[in-house]
Amino acid sequence: MEHIQPGRELPVPKHLHMAPRVLATICETIGIRKAETGGMLGGCRETGTVTHFCFDTDAQRTSVIYTPNNALLNAVKREWREQGIDFLGSVHSHPPYIRRPSAGDEVYVRRILDVLDVPYMLVHIVTTLADTGAFTLYPFAAVREGNGVRIIEQELVVDGNLIRAAKPAVPDETVGTEEYLMILMEMELSMTAMWYGTMPWVGVPPMRRRRYGNDRRRRSGND
Predict the structure, then answer these.
(1) Are 160 and 219 in contact (CB under 8 A)?
(2) Which of 56, 44, 39, 46 is nearest to 18 (CA)?
(3) Where in the sequence is the domain holding 176, given as residue range(s)?
(4) How buried is 138 (Cβ within 10 angstroms: 0-12 exposed, 13-18 middle, 19+ buried)?
(5) Are 33 and 128 in contact (CB under 8 A)?
(6) What is the pLDDT of residues 89-102, one digit of tens each?
(7) Which of 95, 167, 178, 221 is the most exposed place for a label (fewest CB within 10 A)?
(8) How far apart are CA 60 and CA 51, in angstroms?
């Protein structure tokens, strides 16, 4: 259940803390598919920590529209509620040229804010390996403002590392684009899985900075 009292003001956390496995799973599901796919985020609203993710396997989608499977997601929300996990919001992919919530996203999240009467909802956007050659997550939150919402950009922190969006890699025109894209997809998925997933680190040297998608740098001190 929610850990806050109804109507209580709770500011949007500047730093969005996400469990390593959650980021890896988003990359391995949403991140390898063409836009538009998505899923649901859970965790603790008071701390702004995302600890759970459910991929929306049966959503309706086109190349520009993602329509959630509410029956599936509502069932998962009930399970999460019984476990004390807050429903924090959603993450879905956009075409490469849309890297923030759309007007349609804002209308949809306003309805959720009104129904649940919570102070904010996460509305993260992903551009994918299949569309851009890199996996990038853009963290945003929405709060009610007037008759609409105000979109607030956050900073993503995973395992103590600040993850900043980097410019997608551009395929070399001298090689086959399809082949180059496949190489980048395999590389990006492997790097994300090694950082945050279950792939072994044996023989893999430490990486100071990601070259594709999001890059990492160690944070110092408290957020």
Answers:
(1) yes
(2) 44
(3) 15-218
(4) buried
(5) yes
(6) 999 999 998 999 99
(7) 221
(8) 25
What's residue 65's pLDDT? 77
Span of 23-32, 34-43, 59-68 with lowest mean pLDDT: 59-68
| β-strands 38-44, 86-93 pairing | antiparallel
Q: Is residue 8 part of a domain?
A: no
Cβ neighbors of 121 (< 8 A, separation 6 or more) are: 88, 89, 90, 109, 112, 113, 141, 142
Q: What pLDDT shows up at residue 178?
A: 54
CATH of residue 46's domain is 3.40.140.10
Predicted pLDDT of residue 166: 61
Write down the pTM of the prediction. 0.72
- What is the CA 64 to chain-centroid distance, rounded? 18
Q: Which residues contact 73 (CB under 8 A, 6 or more apart)?
A: 40, 54, 56
Cα 179 from Cα 123, distance rounded (Å): 33
Q: Among residues 165, 166, 135, 168, which one has the least CA distance to residue 153?
A: 165
In a domain? residue 5: no
Confirm whether 37 is domain-assigned. yes
Q: How many domains does the structure of the chain reveal?
A: 1
Q: Distance between CA 100 and CA 139 in Å, rounded?
A: 9
Residue 223 lies in a domain: no
